């Protein structure tokens, strides 16, 4: 497995791979790799000949009061995990490589990004779309694999790819969950045991909602009220949103249409912002 830090080297390598007919799979990450990321490498390996994992903590997707500085960085361990999982290349550029002095171009998706996390993290998706388009241009993927846990991010990226005619297929891998139901996330590493115990109520509430729908509940208000009530029973959790949305447009739903919608939750577990979602 190769590691590449230079944008030019990565780009010319990718162009070479493509011209020799290899299908390139990209797994974009910010590192601190867990089973969720590693399962995306498995998917990329099934669908592509060469798998590139990018590891880059992208400063433009963090707000000024967010956790950019403290975001966990463990490059050596991450590289080892990529090697063990069978990735071909780790691309881990520096911030200066990606955003050199004077950098001033950003990509804005204006519809899907506006609700849910877009309300409380107003510049987040602009940073995500910008870095993903840069990563696509540098690594020239035929397919790029993202995790369903970041459902709004998936929908925004798919829309950017469609709107800007980017010749890559976006593949979404299922959310990986730990034994207590928590969706795997790099930010889970911030949680104390007590916070983690209460945070696991997020996935429990999502599963409860899924059962309500399976038993015939059609009212969005009822689902949202029950989930909110469940989460408010945890002293360490503060709900940011509980919303049922169309899984593609992320528009709020008026009634439950099983199979077409997601129930999305964001909550603070004290200082840690967590998100999760489930298909209804
Ligand atoms: O999901 C993430 O880790 C990041 O948002 C991504 C897609 C790697 C862009 O920095």
Short description:
The protein is of the alpha/beta class and 280 residues long.
Describe this structure in words.
This protein is an alpha/beta fold. The protein folds into two domains: 2-173, HUPs (Rossmann fold); 186-279, Pantoate--beta-alanine Ligase, Chain: A,domain 2 (2-Layer Sandwich). The protein is 39% helix and 20% strand. The protein contains nine helices and nine strands. The protein has helices at 7-19, 35-47, 75-85, 95-98, 117-120, 124-139, 151-163, 193-214, 220-232, and strands spanning 2-4, 24-29, 50-55, 89-91, 143-147, 169-173, 237-246, 261-269, 272-279. The strands form two sheets. The protein has a six-stranded parallel β-sheet with strand order 1-4-3-2-5-6, sandwiched between helices. Helix 2 (35-47) links the parallel strand 2 (24-29) and strand 3. Helix 6 crosses helix 7 (151-163) and helix 8 (193-214) packs antiparallel against helix 9 (220-232). The longest helix has 22 residues, at 193-214. The chain is globular. It starts with a strand and ends with a strand. The model has no long low-confidence stretch (mean pLDDT 98). The protein binds pantoate. Pantoate binds next to strand 2 and helix 6.
Q: What is the secondary structure topology, with strand pairs?
A:
Layout lengths: L1 E3 L2 H13 L4 E6 L5 H13 L2 E6 L19 H11 L3 E3 L3 H4 L18 H4 L3 H16 L3 E5 L3 H13 L5 E5 L19 H22 L5 H13 L4 E10 L14 E9 L2 E8 L1
Parallel strand pairs: 1-4, 2-3, 2-5, 3-4, 5-6
Antiparallel strand pairs: 7-8, 8-9
Helix pairs in contact: 6-7, 8-9
This protein binds pantoate (PAF).
């Amino acid at each position: 497995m190769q590691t590449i830090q230079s944008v030019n080297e990565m780009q010319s390598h990718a162009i070479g791979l493509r011209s020799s007919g290899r299908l390139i799979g990209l797994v974009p990450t910010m590192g601190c790799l867990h089973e969720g990321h590693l399962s995306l490498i498995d998917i990329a390996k099934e669908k592509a000949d060469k798998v590139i994992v990018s590891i880059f903590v992208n400063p433009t997707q963090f707000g000024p009061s967010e956790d950019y500085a403290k975001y966990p960085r463990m490059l050596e361990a991450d590289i080892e995990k990529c090697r063990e999982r069978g990735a071909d290349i780790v691309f881990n550029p520096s911030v200066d490589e990606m955003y050199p002095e004077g950098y001033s171009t950003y990509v804005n998706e204006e519809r899907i990004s506006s609700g849910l996390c877009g309300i409380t993290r107003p510049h987040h998706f602009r940073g995500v779309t910008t870095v993903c388009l840069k990563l696509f241009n540098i690594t020239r993927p035929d397919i790029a694999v993202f995790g369903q846990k970041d459902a709004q991010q998936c929908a925004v990226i798919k829309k950017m790819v469609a709107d800007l005619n980017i010749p890559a297929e976006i593949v979404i891998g299922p959310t990986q969950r730990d034994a207590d139901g928590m969706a795997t996330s790099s930010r889970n590493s911030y949680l104390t045991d007590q916070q983690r115990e209460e945070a696991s109520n997020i996935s429990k509430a999502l599963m409860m909602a899924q059962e309500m729908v399976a038993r015939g509940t059609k009212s969005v208000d009822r689902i949202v009220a029950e989930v909110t009530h469940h989460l408010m029973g945890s002293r360490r959790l503060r709900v940011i949103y509980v919303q049922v949305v169309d899984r593609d447009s992320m528009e709020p739903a008026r009634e439950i249409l099983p199979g077409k919608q997601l129930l999305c939750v964001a909550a603070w577990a004290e200082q840690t912002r967590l998100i999760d979602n489930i298909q209804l």
